[in-house]
Design brief:
With 368 residues, this protein is of the alpha/beta class. It is built from 17 helices and five strands. Strands 2-1-3-4-5 form a five-stranded parallel β-sheet, with helices on both faces. The protein has two domains: 116 residues, Response regulator (Rossmann fold, 3-Layer(aba) Sandwich), CATH 3.40.50.2300; 217 residues, Orthogonal Bundle (Hypothetical protein af1432). It comes from Sulfurimonas hongkongensis. This is Chemotaxis protein CheY.
């Protein structure tokens, strides 16, 4: 049975509101509520729960940026996805800093409008499920200690499962495979163990790794699925997937796996020498989890076959990673990787793409 979603569309042009309603006409599980100005939109938000807000930037009296500020100041609406709708991108950076989830440009591409809006609606539901589950568990702490311990175990497993499912969300839109998610997660856990992290942190890295590219759900298909090299302006948009991923997982500090995933999503394209993105971090200013995932992700990407490329020869892969030690990669992690290469190759051999049918990742206990 499909989930029912409620979307608030805010625009001072009735014609644009009509277009949005027409775009979602075939979705019987989607309810569109219209607001002709920001004041009316804020009133709707006080009275009704929404899954996504489509907010026009250019409006008289109170524009979309001012409305966004007010919405994000309300603790109850902090995690509500706000998609800014605009004919230009001059205020894009300002809106993102204020908490906007994404942008949809005018004139609308109907398929992009619907797909992106529903993607954020579903992700919002994932957030709510986690938060609601935690609140329920906390209310039971003093009443049923034994039952709570079992419930916490279930909650942890559910958080891991959500991490994997969210990882799959980006996988379905990209040209990656389930095998890539599995292998790079296991490579990451192995490298964390070799680095000397304790069992709990190694498991945290293992389960957070699938979230590294979750931000790709916010990248347009014409860029994400483009064969060949990006034009400079396309690459700038592609680079936003790290910021989008962190925004999707914002507010999850109480959930260790999702919070680790937020850090990884934001920083896994930073480079040791400071030439990466989005923040130009360098050295140990890059979180260790992100440095670990970078090595694992690049190794699997270079050494695996894709529908658009053949797998690179192992010697060439190792040559590239050695050359980039100290520039792209943490040199200590590369040393650990190369000194224990046989263990990584065992994972690669065990989880081949053609044999891969599921992306479940068993806990450390189950694999010891």
């Amino acid at each position: 049975m499909l989930d029912n979603f409620s979307i608030l569309a805010v625009d001072d042009e009735p014609f644009n509101l009509d277009l949005i309603e027409a775009a979602f006409m075939e979705y019987t599980n989607v309810e569109i509520i219209n607001a002709i100005n920001a004041k009316e939109a804020l009133e709707h938000l006080e009275q009704k729960k929404f899954d996504v807000v489509l907010l026009d930037i250019s409006m008289p009296m109170m524009d979309g940026i001012e409305a966004l500020k007010i919405i994000k100041q309300n603790p109850k609406l902090k995690l509500l996805p706000i998609l800014m709708v605009t004919a230009n991108t001059e205020r894009e950076s300002e809106a993102l800093k204020l908490g906007a989830s994404d942008f949809i440009t005018k004139p609308y591409d109907i398929e992009v409008l619907c797909a992106r809006t529903l993607n954020y609606a579903k992700l919002n539901r994932y957030h709510e499920q986690i938060i609601n589950q935690t609140e329920i568990l906390e209310s039971q702490v003093q009443l049923r200690t034994k039952e709570l311990q079992e419930a916490l175990k279930l909650s942890k497993e559910a958080e891991y499962e959500i991490s994997i499912r969210l990882g799959r969300a980006s996988e379905f839109r990209d040209l990656e495979t389930g095998g890539h998610i599995k292998r790079m997660s296991l490579y990451s856990e192995l490298l964390a163990r070799l680095y000397g992290l304790d069992k709990q942190e190694c498991e945290l890295v293992l389960y957070a790794a699938p979230l590294h590219d979750i931000g790709k759900v916010g990248i347009p298909d014409k860029i994400l699925l483009k064969p060949g090299r990006f034009e400079p302006h396309e690459f700038e948009i592609m680079k936003q997937h790290s910021v989008i991923g962190a925004k999707i997982l914002d507010g999850t500090q109480r959930f260790p796996v999702l919070n680790a995933g937020r850090i990884i999503a934001l920083q896994h394209h930073e480079k040791w020498d400071g030439t990466g993105y989005p923040s130009g971090l360098s050295g140990k200013n890059i979180h260790l989890y992100a440095r670990i995932i970078t090595v694992a992700d690049v190794f699997d990407a270079l050494s695996s076959k894709r529908c658009y490329k053949e797998a690179m020869e192992l010697d060439k892969v190792l040559s590239i990673m050695k050359k980039d030690s100290g520039t792209h990669f943490d040199p200590l992690l590369i040393t650990l990787f190369l000194n224990n290469l046989d263990e990584f190759l065992k994972i690669k051999e065990k989880y081949k793409d053609e044999e891969f049918t599921d992306c479940d990742i068993k806990s450390l206990e189950e694999r010891q």
